[in-house]
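Customer escalation, tier 2.

The customer says the design service returned an amino acid string that "doesn't look like it belongs to this structure." They asked us to rerun it and document both sides in this ticket. The original structure tokens are below, unchanged.
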């Protein structure tokens, strides 16, 4: 292996520490902590950027049509969490928050259980979650009367 390390990165590239960190992120409690720390840092940064300069509506579908997509509120979830408002985060988009939590705990085995499901079952779960999320967004933004 001339010119490359055992990780496949060229000599001098930061592949070693990065690959070790990514390896840790794949399994166990250390992976959960690494993922949660990365999400918390991203949430805090998003909240800071939002506080300094509110960009307005980020969803292209909602900006053009006024109708939210099922993932509308996903950015707001992280902005609210980064600002220390967990209840507002849940109200913005519970499906996006549940998805983020699922990604965070995947190294504990939840990811393996998800992929062990039949593709049709996964499609039904995702479809139901997206329909539920769309209904939530329509109600949240006053476009659907409940």
């Amino acid at each position: 292996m001339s010119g490359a390390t055992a990780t496949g990165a060229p000599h001098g590239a930061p592949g070693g520490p990065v690959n070790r960190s990514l390896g840790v992120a794949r399994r166990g409690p250390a992976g959960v902590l690494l993922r949660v720390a990365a999400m918390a840092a991203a949430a805090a940064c998003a909240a800071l950027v939002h506080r300094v300069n509110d960009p307005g509506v980020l969803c292209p579908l909602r900006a053009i049509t006024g109708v939210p997509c099922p993932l509308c509120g996903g950015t707001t979830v992280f902005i609210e969490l980064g600002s220390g408002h967990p209840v507002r985060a849940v109200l913005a988009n519970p499906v996006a928050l549940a998805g983020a939590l699922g990604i965070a705990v995947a190294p504990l085995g939840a990811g393996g259980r998800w992929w062990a499901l039949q593709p049709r079952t996964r499609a039904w779960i995702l479809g139901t979650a997206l329909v539920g999320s769309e209904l939530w967004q329509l109600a949240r933004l006053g476009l659907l009367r409940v």
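Tier 2 assessment: The sequence is consistent with the input. The chain is about 65% helix and 0% strand. The first helix runs from residue 15 to 24. Sent an explanation to the customer and offered a walkthrough call.
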